[in-house]
Amino acid sequence: MKDDLESRLSSLKLQPLPLDWREEMLARLPGTMPQPRCTPPRWLAVGWGLAWAAVIVLHFTTPAASDPAAPAASLNAEAMRQRAEFMQSLLALK
Amino acid sequence: MLTARQIERLYDAHAAGLFHYIHGIVRCEAQAKDLLQELFLKLQHQGLPVVESEKAWITRMAHHLCLDWLRHHGSRQRAEERSAAEPRPMFQEQQDPDSAEFARRVGRALDDLPPEQRSVAYLKLWQGLTFDEIAAVQGIPLNTAASRYRYALEKLRSLLRPLYDEIQP
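Above: the input entities. Below: the C-alpha cells describing the complete assembly.
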C-alpha cells in the first residue's frame, strides 16, 4: 500500500521526449523509412494509359478490310508444292 | 522482425520511460538517446515474444544495454560525474509553483541517491513495475529489490520532508 509520499512522487509526470526524436529514431530503423518508388511517375503512367486507350479505340472503330492474305497464302503453298515436286524430279534424274 | 507499425506503437508506449531509465544509469543525454535507438533497432530485429509484461521485458533489454555500455565506456562513478555537468529535468513542468518546486527537489533528491537505489525507485514509482519484475529486469534477488526501494524511499523522505510537509494540502 502506498503512503502519501509515494503517491505524491508517483503522481509526477515524466518529461516527454522531444517530438522530433520520434521521427529521427524511427527513420533510422530499416523498413520504417518510406520505400523508394518503384512505379513510373504519374505523367508517364497517364500517357501510357491514353496511348493504349487510343490503340483499343482505333482497333474497334476501324472497319475490317477484306482479307487479301488468304488467297496469297494458298498461292504460296501451291508454288512451294510445285517447287518441291520439281526438286524431287531433278533428284530422280541424277 | 517487427513491422513499422508495431515499432511505432512500442515507441509511443515506452520510449520516454525507457529514456529516463537509461539516462538515470548512463547520465548523459546523447548517450541515452543513442542507447534508446540501439534498443529499438534490437527490438525490431528480435521481435517481441509473448510475455506477461511487455514493459518489464523491454526494460530488461535496456538494462542490459546500459550494463554493456558501462562495461565498455566507463564506470558508474564516471557516469555520476558526467551527470553533474548535464542536468536534465526528469519531470514535466508544473504550473503550480509549489508543485514545480517539489518536482525540482525530487529531481535533485534522486540525484543524491546511490545509482542502485535510484534505478529501483524509478522502476517502482514511475514505471509501475512490481518487485518481481524489477528483480527480473536487474537480475537481482527479490529481497534486494525490495530493500533498495525501502532505503531509497527513506532517503527521499528525509530529503523532501521539510518541503513536503510545508506544501501538504
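Note for the figure: The radius of gyration of chain B is 17 Å.
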